[in-house]
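Many groups now describe folds with learned vocabularies. In that spirit, our science desk offers one protein's residues alongside their backbone shape tokens.
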Amino acid sequence: MSELPSDIDADILARLSKTLAGRRSAAPENSYSARLLAKGEEAILKKIGEETAELIMASKDGKPAAIVFETADVLFHLLVLLTFHGLSIDDVRRELTRREGVSGIAEKAARNA
């Protein structure tokens, strides 16, 4: 895996996750994230579905810039969902670290056991 260019911020997801955690108690009229969190899980899940559909279409259209844009939207809304449940990107990182080096087939078999 190559090093990230200097203009890429490797900690953006962690900072965004912390920002979203702060939005849990923010006034909904002042923040899109606070408003979405206040609307609850159903609204968040609906938004994830919409953004995922847009990502699928961007991929089918083969437009790299649109794929990146829609992937960012999906990641953002997944972070909102994690925040809603009191979780953060660090919880996901721990799970990915746990899985690292484990065969996908073996990992799936362990879940089904």
